[in-house]
Amino acid sequence: MDLQTTIYLFVGLSFALYIGIAVWARAGSTSEFYAAGGNVHPVMNGMATAADWMSAASFISMAGLISNMGYGGALFLMGWTGGYVLLAMLLAPYLRKFGKFTVPQFIGDRFYSKSASTVAVVCLLIASLTYIIGQMTGVGVAFSRFLGVSSEVGIYVGMAIVFAYAVFGGMKGITYTQVAQYIVLILAYTIPAIFISLQLTGNAFPQLGLGANYAGSDVSLLSKLDSVVTDLGFGQYTTTTAGSTLNMFMYTLSLMIGTAGLPHVIMRFFTVPSVKDARSSAGWALVFIAILYTTAPAVAAMAKLNLHATVNTAVKTGGDLYAPEASILNESRPDWMKRWEKTGLLKFEDKNGDGRIQYYNDKSQNAAATAKAAAAGWKGNELTVNPDIIVLANPEIALLPNWVIALVAAGGLAAALSTAAGLLMAISSAVSHDLVKNIFMPGISEKGELMAGKVSMAVAIVVAGYLGLNPPGFAAGTVALAFGIAASTLFPAIMMGIFSKKMNKEGAIAGMLAGLFITLFYVFAHKGIFFIKGTDFLPMIGGANSFFGITPEAFGAVGAMVNFGVAYLVDKVTKEPPAHIQAMVEAVRIPRGSKLVTGSH
């Protein structure tokens, strides 16, 4: 069977499975629509949480970023995993005990104010929509390559599929679909990694292969990679950082606390029967997440080495990388390069007219590399590789069997679609439950509320699809912006709501608004107002990364500090919360017993 047919078969079967599960697990009530009836097994919920959590950014983009950035890319691993631990330990059990299944509902009740709830809904919608843009970018990348269509058509197909199972199944359908998606995506990630680790190091465990010797030599894989990339003028793979040390720290912190404030992951803890099960499913989710997250650095390094070895034959032989015959001839380039060129995510331009592909850093500060390139007659880097394709192209670069390539295609789509569905659920419940039912139409029937949820989901899919066609950056970069928005708005409000019984509604509202405003101001200055190209205003803030060299993706941590500071100051000059609210906060922190999840006040 040829490659394209195999891909259609694997992707088609996985989609049939997801839609079949959604039909089987249709939500009949609001409780099933929002919280899957509250009786999902902790291990199943752990798998669903892991699938919800590991988005297109984790599956498609993260290893590509680590591959591109080297050591500095580890901030995504540290930030996202650390944030999940923070969420599981500090927030999830208390929110589960509180017994409300949306973040705005918790904020509205804890800060005894519908205004606080409305501000939380606005913050949640901005963060979730920004996050979905990243997923849609990932869906576009995956579909464009594997269905042989443009990324625009890929996004339309993805929108239709998410719409089908998210709108019909609600949280119940999404939960069981995500269990299936987790199994597909983890197999798709680990099987190629095992194959490639065996090829390059002879070790079946990619995590150990990363530290092992390069096959047929007594040099470690990472030393080999370091010598190749530095010789070609790139930064040293094992030491390069993302900007300054301060920026790297703030970026990691922003991803961490943004994770802990992400509404679609927090909602997952309401689908289990009790607080004990919430803790247990958090632990299981961490195990399931760790399988992918410990494999990613190996996938990144091995893919980078394989890519260089494909374009420059001297990498394998240990010869001169600048020798004329080392660069491969364009007409003898492998088929996988031709396939990716069609998507526009891999580009070749013959700058010196020799018919060969030269791949090096032509803007290098490394004088030796620049001199060698000039002596060899190289006129500039001729290969442009989008970091988002590294994982999807990985099995093709390593010339693995067709079924492995097809499995990766199904896995990449599963990762993007599972998170998109979880985010749509968060948006839908925020609009129908927290805005329509609790503020505008308190007397709405259960049927009417379900309808409002489905309509808001459909609108969110259309908006996200439109923005996904014009993204502000690559998938993981866009997702980092969403984490920054959650970090600067929702996380401080939830933390103060649980751990400070004296924090009042005025402080919480002022803090959320201040955090949201300053973060959006800095992000929009760089990326354009609501990510619309051409509307950026960098001169107003003194140029790019003008605040101590901090990038917009890392600015969420600064926004969170502003949020805490403003909330504290406003709280000091306004009256403290009523006694019954303070008593309720005390009670939530006692671990025994928990209320059932309810939608009512």
Structural overview:
With 601 residues, the protein is an all-alpha fold. It has 24 helices and two strands. The chain has helices at residues 3-24, 30-35, 42-53, 56-69, 74-98, 103-110, 114-146, 151-201, 206-209, 221-231, 245-260, 263-266, 275-311, 314-317, 335-341, 367-375, 390-397, 402-440, 446-469, 475-499, 505-527, 538-541, 556-572, 579-588; strands spanning 346-348, 383-385. It has a two-stranded antiparallel ribbon with strand order 1-2. The longest helix has 51 residues, at 151-201. The chain starts with a helix and ends in a 13-residue tail after the last helix. The model has no long low-confidence stretch (mean pLDDT 81).
Q: List the secondary-structure elements in sequence, H or E.
A: HHHHHHHHHHHHHHHEHEHHHHHHHH
Helix content range: 55-70%
How far the N terminus sits from the C terminus, by CA atoms, comes to 58 Å
Whole-number radius of gyration?
25 Å
Query: What is the spatial order of strands in the main beta sheet?
Result: 1-2
By DSSP (H or I, 4+ residues per run), the number of helices equals 24
> Beta-strand percentage?
under 5%
**Tertiary shape:** globular
Structural class: mainly alpha
Average pLDDT for all residues = 81
Tell me how many strands there are. 2
Uncertain parts: none
Assembly state: single chain
Q: Biggest sheet: strands, sense, closure?
A: 2 strands, antiparallel
